[in-house]
Amino acid sequence: MTTQPSVVGTTAHPSVQAVGADGLRDWALDPGVRHLNHGSFGAVPRPVLALRQTLRDEMEANPDAWFRELPGRVARAREGVAAFLRTAPGDLAFVLNASSGVSAVINSLTLARGSRVLLSDHSYGAVTMGVRRVAARAGAVVDTVRVPLDASASDVTERFAHELARPGAPVALVVVDQITSPTARLFPVAAIVERAHAVGARVLVDGAHAPGMLADPLAHAGAADYWTGNLHKWVCAPRGSAALVARGPHARELMPLTDSWGATDPFPERFDQQGTQDTTGWLLASASSDYVEQRYGWDAARAALTRLADEAQTLLAGALDQDLAPVAVNQAPTMRLIPLAARLAVDPEQAAALQRRIAHELRCEVSVTSFGGRGFLRLSAHVYNRPEDYVYLAERLPGFLRAL
User: Fold this and answer.
1) pTM of the entire structure?
2) β-strand pairing of 92-95 with 242-246
3) N or C: which terminus of the chain has fewer CB atoms within 10 Å of its end residue's CB?
């Protein structure tokens, strides 16, 4: 039996290795660029990349043997990821990314004509598009829960509860972000799930940013019917790695987006065989989480990264002369927003253009987002980041923006 790949040769913690101390030494990231946008695409440690190449070489050396043995390998990989996420292996399927997990759920459900689906105005754009397409096909209605940026956790819950209780067609499904992408808010999903279940609605939690950033994202999601989260972000697994968690009868309804030879298998095994897809990222997700644990310790890393994100946010807000009060509520642990001048990035197109210019002219990768007609700088912090990365940006960004 083939053993699971593992990271070897890393420094053992507890916290022998300080977060950010080595910079990019153990990462393939370009050292000529400041990488402050881990939240979008993640980064993979060099030891994991080396393991992935070894697996790919094995696959190419004998594709028949590789794909013949792959289901067993995926099953063992699922055990490791399930342990990291503190759930049962039988409740977890691998998917390509959180958007794929959302798509698998909404395309497996039968929405009644005239029923309602709830989203918030903080939802990820691709998820919103997918939900609207599926709802239109079924004749269902998508309603948007408006949540101000400075809403407290209780206010967020009550806004969802108000929409759930509104007279008219019943709510069949609530799709709610655990950590919002454009605004880096931590939503009170367990409380929202409780309110939704009280009126018979199912809840799908989009936990794209949650694995690794939250110690126990599934506990934070409460009794959600479905949860999906990326492993390529804070867990640092190779891209194309995410988890979809469902339990009981709801899980049995779920089908992968591509029918392959495992289609007649039960959940989650029916998700394991996806034709000739390269699933080496799935096989290495535990190696990536082990890398962070062995090198830094997850608990120590999370605490240090939260402090670093706090410091970076304060530094950039001061440099840009911006008030943090409107964004200092329900913030994600290791992502932060800094308001931009009112004239900048007022819509998604302008935000994307500004992000590209910062990357090209300042050699700094950040996320620029737009919400409610206002532009924001969204910064991330991970173990390779150092305070001087944010100092570099703070010294250059104000003059750059004034010149626009």
Assistant:
1) 0.95
2) antiparallel
3) N
* Contact assessment for residue 131 and residue 119, using Cβ atoms and an 8 Å cutoff: yes
User: How do the residues of the chain divide into helix, strand and coil, expressed in percent and rounded to 5?
Assistant: 45, 15, 40
Element of type H or E holding 308: helix 298-320
31's tokens: 């050292």
pLDDT of residue 12: 44
CA within 13 Å, CB half, 170: 11
Sheet holding 141-145, edge to edge: 92-95, 242-246, 226-230, 202-206, 171-177, 116-120, 141-145
The pLDDT score that the predictor gives to residue 14 is 44
CATH T-level fold of 71-289? Aspartate Aminotransferase; domain 2 (3.40.640)
307 Cβ contact partners less than 8 Å away, ≥ 6 residues apart? none
Local structure of residue 148 (DSSP, 8 states): -
Q: Alpha carbon 114 to chain centroid distance?
A: 31
DSSP H helices, 168-278, are 189-198, 217-220, 248-253
Cis peptide bond upstream of 14, omega within 30: yes
Q: What is the pLDDT of residue 3?
A: 59
Q: What phi-psi label fits residue 35: left (phi over 0), alpha (psi between -120 and 50 degrees) or beta?
A: beta
Pairing of strands 116-120, 141-145: parallel
At 13 the pLDDT is 44
Q: Where are the domains of the chain?
A: 71-289, 298-402
Supply the pLDDT for residue 274.
87
- 82 sits in the region (left: phi over 0; alpha: psi -120 to 50; else beta) called alpha
CATH number of 298-402: 3.90.1150.10
Q: In the numeric block, which tokens belong to residue 245? A: 């968690």
pLDDT under 70: residue ranges of the chain: 1-4, 6-17
The alpha-helical segments, DSSP class H, found in 139-229 are 153-165, 189-198, 217-220
Q: How far is residue 51's CA from residue 40's CA, in Å, rounded to a whole number?
A: 23
Closest alpha carbon to 215 in 285, 280, 299: 299
